[in-house]
Specification:
The protein has 2 domains: 39-174, no CATH class; 186-332, Sandwich (Immunoglobulin-like), CATH 2.60.40. The chain is 22% helix and 36% strand. It contains 6 helices and 18 strands. The protein has a 10-stranded antiparallel beta sheet with strand order 1-6-10-9-8-7-2-3-4-5. Strands 13-12-11-15-16-17-18-14 form an 8-stranded antiparallel beta sheet. β12 and β13 (221-226) form a beta hairpin. Residues 20-35 have low confidence and may be disordered.
């Protein structure tokens, strides 16, 4: 019996020791994880950044903050308006980037993580004086983050979040393709003049339009009317839709500057509109710039754009398309 009691006691002590070890390991792992999450760029403030340089196997891209406070994408001698929201997201992510753990200190392992100079994507942040605020290489994704290394270092780290989505070296990704003011709403537009004669479908008939519609109040209700033919019944929903599409119009790409357009080039459409504050805007659609797109210019912009045919199809409605169905005609009276 004494031997059996001793054996039971020994097993109990052994069990307690194992439990203590497991609990200790768990708590120490949690503490170590917290300790290892070290800010990669402590003190970095996105407000201090005025230049973002992106490079990688696909090419390179430079974004700069102008004195006016607007971010621009540099492309050769020309700069284009940048998408400020995407830049803010990128800079916020970098300022909160943390090292989760050290993966390797061996330079021979860099290729395993796509962190060699030729394979990695690189991000450099600078302030207005040109001082580097951050310089890092991004490699493969870890699942939750990226494998990264800092410039002039051969140490591979894993990060707490991935920046892969925000490191495209494609100008079209970074440019702001909404040409009208960000705060412009369809409900702000109170007059639209549409003139068009262009083909928007392969082997299709030309789409022709020549009219002005405007908002007014009839019997205490705001309605759209056709200028010069106030008895013509308009589909109010379609007129509202046209105004919304116009206010939120996005082009496909930047195509250069207006000076690039050859003198005497044809104009296939002209759209003018105004708002309740009497602000006026005008766009012109020029020659075809591809199988499914046209050149476009905006009177308040120095740029030349490519606009997709499907965008124009949604926007340019003939007067017959705007005509109200018989059941809706009473809505304009």
């Amino acid at each position: 019996m004494k031997f059996k009691n001793k054996l039971i006691l020994l097993c109990s002590i052994l069990g307690l020791l194992v439990a203590a070890y497991v609990l200790g390991a768990l708590f120490s792992y949690g503490s170590a994880s917290k300790i290892r999450e070290i800010a990669l760029f402590p003190g970095l403030k996105k407000e201090s950044v005025s230049t973002v340089e992106l490079s990688g196997p696909e090419g390179s891209m430079v974004l700069e903050l102008e004195q006016t406070g607007s971010w621009m994408v540099k492309s050769g001698a020309v700069s284009y308006p940048a998408d400020a929201d995407k830049l803010d997201t990128l800079l916020t992510s970098i300022s909160g980037l943390k090292q989760v753990r050290i993966v390797s200190r061996n330079a021979e392992n860099l290729s395993n993580f796509d962190l060699t100079d030729s394979a990695a994507r690189r991000i450099i942040l600078k302030d207005r004086e040109g001082r580097e605020l951050a310089d890092m290489f991004l490699g493969k994704e870890t699942g939750k983050g990226d494998y990264v290394r800092l410039a002039k270092s051969e140490t591979v780290l894993s990060s707490n979040k991935s920046l892969s989505f925000y490191t495209a070296q494609d100008m079209n990704y970074w440019t702001n393709l909404k040409i009208f003011p960000e705060d412009l709403q369809g409900s702000d537009i109170d007059s639209i003049t549409m003139k068009a004669d262009l083909v928007l479908e392969k082997d299709g008939a030309p789409v022709r339009a020549d009219y002005t519609i405007y908002r007014t109040v009839v019997n205490k209700a705001e309605v759209w009317q056709l200028q010069g033919r106030e008895d013509f019944k308009l589909d109010q929903n379609k007129a509202d839709t046209m105004a919304k599409i116009l206010a939120n119009l996005r082009v496909r790409t930047f195509a250069g500057i207006k000076e690039d357009v050859p003198a005497g080039s044809a104009v296939h459409a002209e759209i003018r509109f105004s708002t309740g504050t009497k602000a006026s805007y005008a766009i012109t659609v020029g020659e075809s710039s591809g199988e499914d797109q046209y050149y476009m210019m905006y009177d308040k912009s120095p740029y030349l754009y490519n606009v997709a045919n499907w965008n124009l199809q949604a926007l340019i409605m003939t007067i017959d398309e705007l005509k109200a169905a018989p059941a809706q005609e009473t809505g304009n009276e």
